[in-house]
Amino acid sequence: MEKNIIEAKNIVKKYKNFTLDVPELRLPEGFATALIGENGAGKTTLLNILTGIRMDYTGDISYFGEYSDKDIFKNPEIKERIGYTGTENYYLPHWTMKQIDDLQGLLFEKYDSAKFKRYCDDLAVFGGKSFDGSKKVSALSDGTKTKLMLAGVLARETDLLIMDEPASPLDPLMRDKLCELIREYLNSGENKSVLFSTHNISDMEGVTDYAIIMERGKIVEQGFVEDLKEKYISVKGESRDAEAAKSILYTMTSSNYGFEGICLAEDLDKLAGLDIVTETASLFKISVAIMKKNSLIK
Amino acid sequence: MNRTLWKCTGAFTPMSYRIAIVIGMILTSAAGFVLSYLMGLASALIVAPVALVIILFVDYFAFSGISVRREKCMEMMKSSVYGREIIGKALKMDTILKIVTVLLCFAGCIIGCVISGAGVLFVLAVMFTTMALTVLVLIFTRRKGLSVAVQMMLTYLGVTLLDGVMLGLLYAVLNAAEEEAQGISTLDIIVWAITLGMACLTVLLGFLLYRDCIRGYESGFLDRSEKEA
Predict the structure, then answer these.
(1) pTM higher than 0.95 for the full model?
(2) How many Cα neighbours within 13 Å face the side chain of B163?
């Protein structure tokens, strides 16, 4: 039976015009989970709650099968085992690399300064030059600041990485490197897990084992990618069959040349008689279809 | 890992900055010493704005408004169970250092006045007035949730203005008292009263500012309003 690294129940956070409402969330242990959703879906709020950065919510969270979120201030073990990177870099602009190194050493027991410097070199934070303790954060580009955050979090001994849109400011080469780092992290020890939110579904699909899709503060779909790909099938057909297919397909786009859409596997036999081609849908197509179905965007 | 007061404060300030502040204090003090021989008690009025600038820069470079809820690096602090302890200790040390900074800036003036026989009470009155007004304006601007740069500007303008008014009044009172005074003892009593009054006000306001800062970052950690924190 699969073990869950995080189990959350009845998580509710209310804003003026928005409510995050997650009745149940299970994060499988030992896998990389992608949290997908359009802007304003509530991904960052959910990640902040799961990391213990936001405390103004109701609900219960259990970590690593043994700790409760109510113990998060009393038990250092919880936050020590979770590594977090935010949407924007969380270092003050005037901080130097040495300050960041010193501060991380104060904040986290299992922080390795030598590892931090090594990751900074590997990720070319200093443009191929060796670690420069006097360099300020303000001298770095947005992408390099993200690399710095990644170096900081990977320099710690953790069991769970929670990353909020780590790929967004990165170039394609670095996104590929990020996927490599995630795989290395998962393979580095037993039961390591990763949870990241992303808009770059195509780039991150190669490393995603489990997907959670959010829309308007709710989880609308979740599952292992393989299972989702069995549940949602990509269908293409001729334009003459578009009208007939429209009511059966989960989502559809059509043009003069034909139609393309996503169909639930259970509804596939309803398309019998139509001239269609089916193929395995990518996680990108599945996510967009699900988000489209639940979105307010017309 | 021993999270001492000094280590926690040091993590927020680079060595070069700490050296620059110490040099600034020494130079200000030396200048105050020289000026006290040239200008007597009025030298304190020149040291006051310099000390004020140093206090404000301590705040900016050390914390950049970190005690304000939802400030940038709070996420990093909150991702660690020790974040709260570290900021608390750094703010405590910062409060102590503010007092030491001002004392050291004025030390040269005080020593110069004592040696030259110019009297030291007026210098102390200026020192405590400057500190009290700085802290008062800092509390006011911090509660308005303004950005750090605007806070600094407003504090400098506010204190300079208030300083000018307060010290103008002080001069007027001293001049009037000197005319009326039957010997030096009455004048001394008046200056003592102002000095002690301002010293007590400084301590009280310093305590309020420290409590304000603690509430600010606690509210950020617990995601409560500052009143609840």
Answers:
(1) no
(2) 27
Final residue before a domain boundary, out of A176, A207, A223: A223
Last residue of a domain, one of A168, A195, A223: A223
- Both A12 and A107 in one domain: the answer is yes
> pLDDT confidence of B167, banded at 50, 70, 90?
low
Question: How many angstroms away from the CA of A235 is the closest CA of chain B?
Answer: 44
Q: How close B41 gets to chain A, by Cα (Å)?
A: 38
- For A116-142, write each residue's pLDDT tens digit: 999 999 998 888 888 888 899 989 998
- Does B76 sit within 8 Å of A107, measured CB to CB? yes
Are residues A242 and A211 both part of a single domain? no
CATH number at residue A122: 3.40.50.300
Residue owning tokens 């806070």: B151
Q: Which residues contact A2 (CB under 8 A, 6 or more apart)?
A: A28, A29
pLDDT tens sequence across B92-119: 777 777 777 778 888 888 888 778 776 6
A interface with B, Cβ–Cβ < 8 A, is: 48, 51-56, 72-73, 75-76, 78-80, 82-84, 86, 88, 90-92, 94-96, 98-99, 102-103, 105-109, 134
Q: Are B109 and B31 in contact (CB under 8 A)?
A: no
Co-location of A184 and A234 in the same domain: no
Residue, of B176 and B192, whose pLDDT is higher = B192
